[in-house]
Amino acid sequence: MIEFLVMALFLAQPTSTQAAVPAAPAVAQATPAPKAGATPAAPAANTPAAPPTAPGTSLAPTGLRNPVDLSADHVTGDRNQAVLTGNVVVKHQTMDIRCDKMTGYYNATRQVTRVVCAGNVRAVDGDRQARGERADYDVPSGVLVVTGSPEARQGNTYLTGTKVRLILGNERLEVENARILVDSPSTTAVPGTRKKAPAPKPPAGATP
Questions:
Q1: With a threshold of 0.70, does the pTM exceed it?
Q2: Among 12-16, 97-101, 118-122, 157-161, which stretch is predicted with the lowest mean pLDDT?
Q3: Cα-flanking dihedrals φ and ψ of residue 169, to 5°?
Q4: b/e 18-41 (16+ beta carbons within 10 angstroms → b)
Q5: By three-state DSSP, how is residue 8 classified?
Q6: How far apart are the first and last CA of the chain?
Q7: How far, rounded to the nearest angstrom, does the alpha carbon of residue 50 sit from its chain's CA centroid?
Q8: Residue 114 class from Cβ within 10 Å (0-12 exposed, 13-18 middle, 19+ buried)?
Q9: Which of 80, 112, 179, 201 is deepest in the core (most CB within 10 A)?
Q10: Residue 7, SS3?
Q11: What does the pLDDT look like over 120-159, one tens digit per residue?
Q12: Residue 114 bridge partners (DSSP)
């Protein structure tokens, strides 16, 4: 699954690590007298608390297995989702998605499972490109669906349709109701010209 790298959204409300335990009634106990020649036991030392983070140390998590890197001009969010606006950039492995506004959805463990982009969507994965007005990216499967007058390009092949689908790290490109414009080998023929037919031979014995 996917860990989220926008650190401002990781600041969950602090919770106590220990539940409150009701105080037990005091029971008077007799303290046995030390035996002759025995060394008195030293009082138990209190365990010191963990030191605070050193100044200048980053709070960024380390060791993320499959991170999604998000950036934007402004971010708001809660424990269930985050909304990014202005120059939004989403990077996941080889997929690069850019848009005007993005909503990211978390699961119960605060991992990003879905990203919905709106406004001026541009996506690039390897040699494949797609554009449109809306995109829905399913993070676990790596499937990106672009809609809203979408167009796509792979190499010299240009496509338009009603829906464009890209799969992360896969060279396959799917377009519904597609219209395709492809290149063709160059030719030496000049458009609008035609070879002239040879002049007919005069009949035998005819005077030129």
A1: no
A2: 12-16
A3: 70, 10
A4: eeeeeeeeeeeeeeeeeeeeeeee
A5: helix
A6: 91
A7: 34
A8: middle
A9: 112
A10: helix
A11: 999 999 999 999 999 999 999 999 999 999 999 998 999 9
A12: 105, 138
